[in-house]
């Protein structure tokens, strides 16, 4: 999860130097009216992994903003005064007044995160803690507090290298503590992701910031603070949950952008591998143990990426009695009258059967988000709702495989034209397909956010290079066979 934020986003020193005055101007242009009008206060939570440069980023923010109206509150283990009171007391005590901004280190998430990592609390206590935090933040938001939560992400190998550099300069206790944190990198990352997914709300969004490059990291932080304050001044709403799509004029590269579209497969090898995996899938579907699992397959991707062709090769070796393909289009009036997941719950297969979705519940965070059919808060909360839906399926024993089929903008245009020129394919191309092409960049950002926020260990996304259809079809078949072979 959050694959995009772990990618090495880069900004040159030259670009940063040119951008810095503009960014400082934007921050002051947002902060000064907040100070003057005193319509709301601002809380900036800085969380994430040790070694990600949280302190450096905040120091730079102080240099860019009016420091007279900033306060930095850092919290460690509670002292006697705080220990004798409820956990949230010290945060209530330090809330900024309207017009003021407080930067928070060691927020109300840290003790919960630490206790879960070191197994001082169980999953039930952890979940109850998250519920309490959501209520706390919702009340603050209703009382005119702008809450901006930043999670700084750093890959383990980069974190390790940074700690080696620090260790050469100092052998103090803080270094030993950081090495201990590195030891728990995986658990901290997984628990942090769960926190973000379950507590990122429209009224208190999380922003996941790649932290490998200090200049990119700090510009992302500064731009997001400026933009969020400005939006709050204009219409009372914070901005999107995602990291900024453009930082300092540089487009944020997502995991979807990074798919290698050059992967290919020659016809002879394709025929051999296709038959191999189709035969294997047929054998797997006939196993006695198949009765213990249901299989849910989700196909999403760029228009004309070949979802239908991949599905046809997939169902060829299956007994028609054990699968159903669901082609999902715009919801009917009956479906609109109910919560959006209703129509998918109705299509959940019985154990021993396959449900194959050509588009799915993910349209909520793709088409409905981009086209404005779902409001900001609606598609924002959908990430967590979808994860919970898929976890219910997997907890019951289902196998969930999700595929994003990717092609380039140029290849899509070629395929669109080919469909228009081929009589038996003309039904596949519509005016809506051409309209969607005009929003290619918006859909790319939405797809990147979708993969980041819904690729879980129990229902991971498989990103498929579909520029070459043969490669895509084999990749899909192999992935399904591998997943079923693990569970059957």
UniProtKB/TrEMBL annotation:
Keywords: ATP synthesis, Transferase. Pfam families: PPK2. SUPFAM superfamilies: P-loop containing nucleoside triphosphate hydrolases. Residues 17-231, 265-485 form the Polyphosphate kinase-2-related domain. GO terms for biological process: ATP biosynthetic process; polyphosphate metabolic process. GO terms for molecular function: polyphosphate:AMP phosphotransferase activity. It catalyses: [phosphate](n) + ATP = [phosphate](n+1) + ADP. It comes from the Bacteria. The keyword Transferase applies. This is Polyphosphate:AMP phosphotransferase.
């Amino acid at each position: 999860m959050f694959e995009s934020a772990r990618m090495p986003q880069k900004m040159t020193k030259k670009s940063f130097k040119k951008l810095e005055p503009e960014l400082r101007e934007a921050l002051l242009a947002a902060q000064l009216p907040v100070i003057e009008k005193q319509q709301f206060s601002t809380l900036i939570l800085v969380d994430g992994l040790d070694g990600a440069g949280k302190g450096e980023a905040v120091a730079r923010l102080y240099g860019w903003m009016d420091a007279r109206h900033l306060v930095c509150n850092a919290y460690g283990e509670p002292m006697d005064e705080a220990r004798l009171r409820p956990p949230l007391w010290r945060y209530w005590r330090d809330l900024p007044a309207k017009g003021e901004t407080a930067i928070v280190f060691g927020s109300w998430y840290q003790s919960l995160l630490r206790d879960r990592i070191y197994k001082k609390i169980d999953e039930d206590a952890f979940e109850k803690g998250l519920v309490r935090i959501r209520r706390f933040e919702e009340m603050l938001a209703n009382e005119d507090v702008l809450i901006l939560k930043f999670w700084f992400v750093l890959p383990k190998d980069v974190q390790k290298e940074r700690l080696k550099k620090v260790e050469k300069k100092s052998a103090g206790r803080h270094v030993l503590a950081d090495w201990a944190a590195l030891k728990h990198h995986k658990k901290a990352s997984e628990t942090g992701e769960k926190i973000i997914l379950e507590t990122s709300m429209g009224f208190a969004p999380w922003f996941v910031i790649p932290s490998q490059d200090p200049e990119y990291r700090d510009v992302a932080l500064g731009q997001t603070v400026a933009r969020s304050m400005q939006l709050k001044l204009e219409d009372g709403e914070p901005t999107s949950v995602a990291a900024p799509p453009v930082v300092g004029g540089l487009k944020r590269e997502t995991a979807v952008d990074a798919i290698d579209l050059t992967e290919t497969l020659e016809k002879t090898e394709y025929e051999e591998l296709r038959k191999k995996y189709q035969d294997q899938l047929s054998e797997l579907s006939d196993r006695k143990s198949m009765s213990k699992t249901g299989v849910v397959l989700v196909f999403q991707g760029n228009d004309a990426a070949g979802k239908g062709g991949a599905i046809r090769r997939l169902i060829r070796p299956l007994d028609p009695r054990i699968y159903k393909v669901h082609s999902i289009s715009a919801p009917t009036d009956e479906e609109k009258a109910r919560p959006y997941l209703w129509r998918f719950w109705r299509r959940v297969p019985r154990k021993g059967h396959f449900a194959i979705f050509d588009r799915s519940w993910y349209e909520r965070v793709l088409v409905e988000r981009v086209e404005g059919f779902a409001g900001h808060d609606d598609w924002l909360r959908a990430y967590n709702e979808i994860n919970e839906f898929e976890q219910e399926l997997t907890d019951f024993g289902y196998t969930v495989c999700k595929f994003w089929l990717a092609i380039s903008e140029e290849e899509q245009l070629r395929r669109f034209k080919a469909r228009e020129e081929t009589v038996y394919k003309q039904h596949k191309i519509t005016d809506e397909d051409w309209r969607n092409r005009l929003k290619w960049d918006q859909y790319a950002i939405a797809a990147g956010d979708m993969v980041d926020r819904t690729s879980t260990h129990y229902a991971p996304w498989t990103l498929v290079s579909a520029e070459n259809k043969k490669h895509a079809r084999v990749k899909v078949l192999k992935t399904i066979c591998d997943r079923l072979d693990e569970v059957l």
